[in-house]
Specification:
- 48% of the residues lie in helices and 8% in strands.
- By secondary structure, the protein is an alpha+beta fold.
- The protein has two domains: 148 residues, dinb family like domain (Four Helix Bundle (Hemerythrin (Met), subunit A)); 75 residues, 2-Layer Sandwich (Nonspecific Lipid-transfer Protein, Chain A), CATH 3.30.1050.
- A hairpin with a 5-residue loop joins strand 1 and strand 2.
- Helix 3 packs across helix 4 and helix 7 packs across helix 8.
- It is globular.
Length: 244
């Protein structure tokens, strides 16, 4: 699942695209609603900056062997995002650039032999530090869509879409009790190419087959679309719980 060096390079490219798009906005646009309920575009940008610092904490901990928490606590995390959301555009841009450099440097500084060290994410989930660049890439790419400035899931790079689908299908959703048994297929992929995820089906239960392009599937699985562009024999695709 991990391709550390390539994922880290993809983070830099995705961040450059994000910064270019954000630089075209103004303070009024930043105060406008994002695609995330209750968050302005400023909230999204503040979250992205603080998330970069949080992942730097984990990368540093993996390198040094220290137990450095991702955030200092959920309340502190939320308060920092609320505090920074209304900042002027130049301040947001400077923060995003500075934290991006910190992330790139921390990722580059982690030796290959230490990337198998486990770190603790929000909610107590533990995974190898090798997965952190892909984690950051998902934050940048998906929240760029959430800014509602013209970029959609259909514009996401195919490599990212495939890798993120693999994470969701194989790890995040596999065995999840709140997700029905699913069989995800891509038209034209051929028989037997579908992938199963969700909770284990009961003995007499068939999985819900949902078909569409990789980008359409990713949009639905991550809550960025309602699945209207997907095909499901039993009606509309089921409503999925938020990723959290």
């Amino acid at each position: 699942m991990s391709d550390y060096a390539h994922d880290a390079a993809d983070v830099t490219e995705a961040t450059d695209r994000l910064l270019t798009a954000v630089a075209r906005l103004d303070d009024a646009a930043l105060a406008g609603p994002s695609a995330l309920p209750g968050w302005t575009r400023g909230h999204v940008l503040a979250h992205l900056a603080r998330n970069a610092d949080a992942l730097v904490n984990l990368l540093t901990g993996a390198r040094t062997g220290e137990d450095i928490p991702m955030y200092r606590g959920e309340e502190v995390r939320d308060a920092e995002i609320a505090r920074d959301a209304a900042r002027p555009l130049p301040v947001h841009l400077a923060d995003l650039r500075t934290t991006a450099v910190r992330f790139d440097s921390a990722a580059a500084a982690l030796p290959e032999e230490l990337r198998s060290r486990e770190v603790t994410l929000r909610g107590g989930l533990r995974e190898p530090a090798a997965h952190l660049p892909l984690r950051r890439l998902a934050e940048v790419e998906l929240h760029h869509v959430d800014l509602a400035v013209g970029r959609t899931v259909a514009d996401l790079p195919a490599r990212f879409v495939e890798r993120q689908l693999d994470v969701l299908i194989s790890s995040r959703f596999a065995g999840h009790p709140g997700i029905p048994p699913l069989l995800l297929t891509v038209p034209g992929a051929g028989a037997g190419a579908g992938r199963r995820t969700g909770r284990d089906p009961a003995p007499d239960e068939n999985p819900v087959t949902v078909s569409g392009s990789p980008a359409a599937l990713l949009g639905w699985l991550t809550g960025r679309t309602d699945g209207a562009d997907l095909s499901c024999a039993d009606g509309p695709p089921p409503v999925l719980p938020p990723l959290g």
